[in-house]
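This follows on from our talk about sequence and fold. Go ahead and set the record down below:
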Amino acid sequence: MIIEVIQGDCEEILLSLKDKEYFKGIHLTFLDPPFNQGKEYNSHFDNMPEEEYWKWMERVIKKIYDLTVDGGAIYFMQREKNTEYVLRTLRETGWNFQNLIIWNKLTSAIPSKIRFSKKYQVIAFFTKGDKPLTFNNLRYEPPLLAMHEYERETGMYLTDIWDDIRELTSGYFAGGEAIRIKDNKFFTKEGERFHKQQSPIELLTQIILTSSKVGDFILDPFAGTGVTAIVAKQLQRNSISIEIDPLNVKLIQKRLQLKRDEDDISKFYSNYIYSVNLDKIWSNDAKSIDMKVENYYFKEIPKNKLNNVLLMKETLMNTLINELKISEDAIDFDYRVKDKDNKVHRFELVIHHDKQSNIIFRLIYVKNLKQADFWIKRIGFEYDILKEKKPNSEYLAVLSGLAFKNMIKNIGDEKLKHCLVAFPGWEKIFGLESLKEKFKSLNIKRNRIMEKQISLDNF
């Protein structure tokens, strides 16, 4: 797999790509240039005369067109006020229109006294030729709106409105994904934002999954913090990242080496499980697709991403502390274990019972049969991993969701049944042990009572 990060002016570098021994054409380009809005960049003047700026964009886009295979795609992201220029520049350089995507960025709107407040960016999706060479028509699970009575059993196709991906701008809570720098060190928890316009990995995951195949070449001529390369690598695509700022290049190279938890795209896998070809486009890894799914990293998740599993975790914490009298000191969030292939698996909660044994929790809420089937397989897979690595520990899959009801009755695997426990309130529906009963059957010793109560006021 080719992962090339090149420092220099993209106009000059693009001219030299054809001379690369590996180069056979670009299949997908993510074009996210400086927006010419007066931002401070070390190696670029971001306040060019408008005509000069768009002539520059035209030259860059024409060079990309010449390097792109027939049917290849470009996604050009820009400010909403520049939509007219974006569409015209792409058309005049030979590209064919497919969609104008509206990215509603899940942030507070930028206020204005003379017009409506601004809350979105445009992403123009064009192709070289009338039809895309690759278009993986992804299906996802949309949130249930107030006017909808039932969930969609097989999800729905992605539309041209993307309203569930959070922007990583300064001034808004961006979690650990937003890169910070302090005392000339990258990836610090405190300090200044390294890049004010860092693109989220979820955005690039959606774009690369849609418009490329395993082994394709992905180009990012304004690489910034390297998010395109980060995602392309995990999806087994080749990538060429061009960045003019040497400090940015240093950051990208370090980011590619680190494999940060915050950059792990596996947490998005279950978003697309309704897509018929997901096992082919997510990775060329021949192992079970179950191995690609890791649990969400909840510690720094923003309020607009609160979901059923997070609330389940808080409820379970209260049950463990207040009803089962488990010491709060013995309970940890975000437990991790490595399998024999050195792959990290995460779980929502763990009780450190004693030095030899833990109780490891997987919390699962499903809305339809496909999700339920997926997680039943995953539970068996995780049970085997944990028993191999932690033979004295217990693994409990805490279930909720009507789709599990009939499936649980048909489970014949006794070791799998041993793992299952009903989330409080679901005991009669599933015919499973309650958490209290499960703890009694496991002969789990009670820890000392902790007076501190966990509050749900902030959720």
In short: Residues 369-389 form the longest helix (21 residues). The two ends are 43 Å apart (CA to CA). The chain has two domains: 3-290, 297-441.
